[in-house]
Design goal:
GO molecular function, one term: proton transmembrane transporter activity
Order of helices and strands: HHHHH
Pfam families: ATP-synt_C
Largest sheet: none
Membrane topology: Multi-pass membrane protein
Structural class: mainly alpha
CATH class: Mainly Alpha
Protein name: ATP synthase subunit C
Radius of gyration: 18 Å
CATH superfamily: lithium bound rotor ring of v- atpase
Strand content: under 5%
Number of strands: 0
CATH topology: Four Helix Bundle (Hemerythrin (Met), subunit A)
CATH architecture: Up-down Bundle
GO cellular component, one term: proton-transporting two-sector ATPase complex, proton-transporting domain
Distance between the termini: 18 Å
Helix content: over 70%
Length: about 150
Amino acid sequence: MNEMLSFLGIALMVGLTGIGSSIGVTICGNAAVGAMKKNPDSLGQYIGLSALPSSQGLYGFVGFFMAKSALDKLLAAGAITPFTAWAIFFTGLILGVVGAYSAIRQAQVCANGIQAIGNGENVFSATMVMAVFPELYAILALLVTILTVLSL
């Protein structure tokens, strides 16, 4: 049962961050398609901003490797304890939820920037800076995951 709980946490980590990133990239892609109708020459900027929410899915993938490696070592050393199983589960849940939410919120910032660029405004750099702020929380969640896994 403890092993199953641990793997569920790892699955949530990867699944939720991936879902959040795919929603985020879709939000930005939709904004880019609309903006290209007005200003097709800024496609490179649209692509740059549209790719930003995909990073949270990568954080889930990094967390997967960290947690899976730690879990493999723990299983090889003997039975995994309920405390360890719950720690991995909640670490995965936290990274998954924070990663998904920050990807969606980051996408909303990027979509607004894409729309403004489509209207002829020069806001690419400012949008990149503003889009970093929601992502910082996904980075913090990844750091918590790394520190938790290393302490097991």
